[in-house]
Write a structure and sequence with these properties.
The structure holds two protein chains of two kinds.
Chain A lengths: L3 E3 L3 E5 L4 E3 L1 E3 L7 E6 L5 E7 L5 E3 L5 E5 L4 E6 L8 E11 L2 E6 L3 E6 L1
Parallel strand pairs in A: 2-12
Antiparallel strand pairs in A: 1-4, 3-9, 5-6, 5-10, 7-8, 8-9, 10-11, 10-12
Chain B lengths: L3 E4 L2 E4 L5 E7 L5 E7 L5 E8 L2 E5 L6 E7 L2 E6 L8 E8 L10 E2 L3 E5 L1
Parallel strand pairs in B: 2-11
Antiparallel strand pairs in B: 1-3, 3-8, 4-5, 4-9, 5-6, 7-8, 9-10, 9-11
The chains are: A mainly beta, B mainly beta.
């Protein structure tokens, strides 16, 4: 089964600084990769996803991620963060089971943006 | 209109009680899920239904019983609640489960606290 590892449990940054949240995946076969964001006391919202094609994926709220097959990575980046980006970020990969697909999540990275 | 809606959002109950969480999606999706997020924010799939048929059951105690009266609804009933059941339960849905990397849409979550 495919899995993802988020290398940092917490990332504190100052407002307007760039940020990178790291994610590595386990599979050597084709993968579908996702980044979700969870704001405090809310549900999960899709930021972006990679299915195929261009390795640079642009998402909502100014985030982007780069699929790197040789390094089995899918790191999330934003050039300048805002206080409102403070949230938990989850990397996820699709696994297929019984004809259905399910998301397998990393353990999350808590991004804290300080003034 | 909320795409995936869950009720109740907050639930505090005593050990040993039986409770249900309801979920409805108005997206016309075929596949619905229940995910559990524990106190460390770790997200794990519990069940997946495709067109009212159980597809994935991830070694969840049989005190947890999902029920899908139609493909737009997936309810979660929990018997004999235990302290360890305290978590956030997310309902989710996706268009179909045939391995196309479709986005999975999440509800706002149901915060269950067992005392």
């Amino acid at each position: 089964a495919q899995s993802v590892t988020q290398l940092d449990s917490q990332v504190p940054v100052f407002e307007e600084a760039p940020v990178e949240l790291r994610c590595n995946y386990s599979s050597s076969v084709s993968v579908y990769l996702f980044w979700y964001v969870q704001y405090p006391n809310q549900g999960l919202q899709l930021l972006l996803k990679y299915l195929s094609g261009s390795t640079l994926v642009k998402g909502i709220n100014g985030f982007e991620a780069e699929f790197n097959k040789s390094q089995t990575s899918f790191h999330l980046r934003k050039p300048s963060v805002h206080i409102s980006d403070t949230a938990e970020y989850f990397c996820a990969v699709t696994n297929f089971q019984g004809g259905s697909e399910k998301l397998v999540f990393g353990k999350g990275t808590k991004l804290t943006v300080n003034p | 209109d909320t795409a995936v809606s869950q009720t109740p959002k907050y639930l505090v109950t005593q050990m040993g009680n039986d409770k249900s969480i309801k979920c409805e999606q108005n997206l016309g999706h075929d596949t619905m899920y229940w995910y559990k997020q524990d106190s460390k924010k770790f997200l794990k799939i519990m069940f997946s239904y495709n067109n009212k048929e159980l597809i994935i059951n991830e070694t969840v105690p049989n005190r947890f019983s999902p029920k899908s009266p139609d493909k737009a609804h997936l309810n979660l009933h929990i018997n004999s609640l235990e302290l360890g059941d305290s978590a956030v339960y997310f309902c989710a849905s996706t268009p179909q489960g045939r391995g196309h990397g479709n986005t999975i849409y999440f509800g706002e979550g149901s915060w269950l606290t067992v005392v």
